[in-house]
Amino acid sequence: MATDLHGLRKSIDAIASDQASDAALEHKRRLGIAWLGGTLACVLTITSIVLVTVSLPASPTSAAPGRIGVVMPEAPDGTVQVHASFSGAVDSGAQFELIASVFPAGDSVVDRTSVGIFFCGPIRNGLELTQANTSDIPTPVPVEPGALEADSRLGPRSECDFVTVSSYNWQVILYGNSDHALAMTAGEKVLYALPGVTTTFRDEIVNGALMHPLPQDSTVQVAMSQVPSDLTVSAAAPQIPAAGDLAWTYTDVVRVNAPDDYRLSGVLGDRESSSQALLFTAGALVGLAGAALLWALEGIVEIALSRRRKRAAT
Q1: What is the CA angle 199-205-208, rounded to 5?
Q2: Would you list the domain boundaries of the chain?
Q3: Is beta strand 247-251 parallel, antiparallel or unpaired with respect to 219-225?
Q4: What are the pLDDT tens digits along the chain (314 aa)?
Q5: DSSP secondary-structure letter at 47?
Q6: Which helix (H) or strand (E) holds 61?
Q7: What is the rounded (10 degree) CA torsion for 281, 287, 293, 298?
Q8: Closest C-alpha to 73, from 213, 188, 201
Q9: What is residue 78's three-state secondary structure?
Q10: What is the reported pTM?
Q11: What CA–CA distance (Å, rounded) separates 218 from 204?
Q12: Angle of CA points 176, 179, 184, to nearest 5°
C-alpha cells in the first residue's frame, strides 16, 4: 500500500514538473514574441521615417550667384546686344556662353570688337574662359582698387575679376566654366540661380584702362540651355515672358536696372518617380510595423494574463 502511494506521488510530482517546464517554455515563447515584434516595429518605423525624409526633402536654397558686367573699351557708334546662355545641367559647376554683338549705326562695318567683362561674386570661383575662333585663353584678374569702390549693379569691386577680349569681327564669343553650381537639388526639386548680366552706370577706370557702359538702347538677354528633359518649371523670378521659353530680355540696360539674378524652380520627373517609389515603400513598411506591434502586444497580453492566472491559482 505504501509502495503504491509512493509511486502515485512520484507520478504527480513528474506531472507537476512537466507542467512547470511547459509553462516556462510557454513564457519564454511569449517573451520572444513580444521582444521580436517590438524590435521589428521599431526597426520598420525608423526605416519608414528615413525613407519619408529622403523622399520629401526641404526645398533647395541657393545663395546669390554673382553678377556679370559688360563694358566697352571704345564706345561704338551703334548698339550692342549681349546674350548670356547658362547650361541647365545639374550636379556640376556653371557652364555658360557669352556673346557680345555690335550693330553699328548706318552702313558702317565693324572690323574689330573689344569688350570688357566683370565677373563678380561666386561665379568667378574657379572660372576658366575660352574664346571662340581663336587660340587665346582670356584670364580674368582681380579689379585693382580705384575711385569707385562699389555700386548697386555689380557690388564691391573687391569681389570682381575683370578681363578684356577682342575679335576681328562684329562679335565676341566666350565660353566659361566655373566651380560655382547654378543648380541646387533636393530630391526631385531643383532651384537654378543664374547670375545677373548688366553694364555700369558710367565711365570707369578699370585696372588702368577707361571703360564705357554699353550704348543706349543696348539689349541684354539671359537664357537657359541644355535643361533636363524631365524638368517641369513651377516658378520663376523674374517671371518668364513666354511659356516654354526660358529666356529674359531687357532693353536699354544703361538706364534700366536689370535683375541681380534669375531664379527658376521646378521638379525633375525622373527623380519624382523615385521619390514616389520611396514613399510607397515607406507606407508598406509602416503597415508591417503596425502588424509587428500587434504581434508584440499579443505576446505582452498573454504574459500578463498568465501571471494573473498564476496569482489566482495560488
Answers
A1: 130
A2: 2-55+272-313, 67-184+197-226+249-259
A3: antiparallel
A4: 555 555 555 555 555 455 555 555 665 666 666 666 667 666 766 765 655 555 555 677 788 999 999 999 988 788 999 999 999 999 889 999 999 999 887 777 777 889 999 999 999 999 999 998 777 789 999 999 987 888 989 999 999 999 999 998 889 999 999 999 999 988 888 999 999 999 999 999 999 999 999 998 899 999 999 998 888 898 999 998 876 789 999 988 888 888 999 999 999 876 545 545 544 565 665 675 566 556 556 656 666 666 666 666 56
A5: H
A6: none
A7: -140
A8: 213
A9: strand
A10: 0.71
A11: 18
A12: 110
* Half-sphere CA count of 83, side-chain side, radius 13 A: 12
Instruction: Output the nine-digit C-alpha cell for 6.
Output: 509512493
Q: How far apart are CA 20 and CA 306, in angstroms?
A: 13
Output DSSP code: residue 143: P
Do residues 189 and 234 make contact, with C-beta atoms less than 8 angstroms apart? Answer: no
**C-alpha cell of 51?**
525613407
Residue 263: CB atoms within 10 A of its CB come to 16
The grid coordinates of residue 289 equal 510595423
Kind plus residue range of the DSSP H or E element containing 111: none
Residues 6+ apart with CB under 8 A from 143: 118, 157, 158, 160, 161, 162, 206, 207
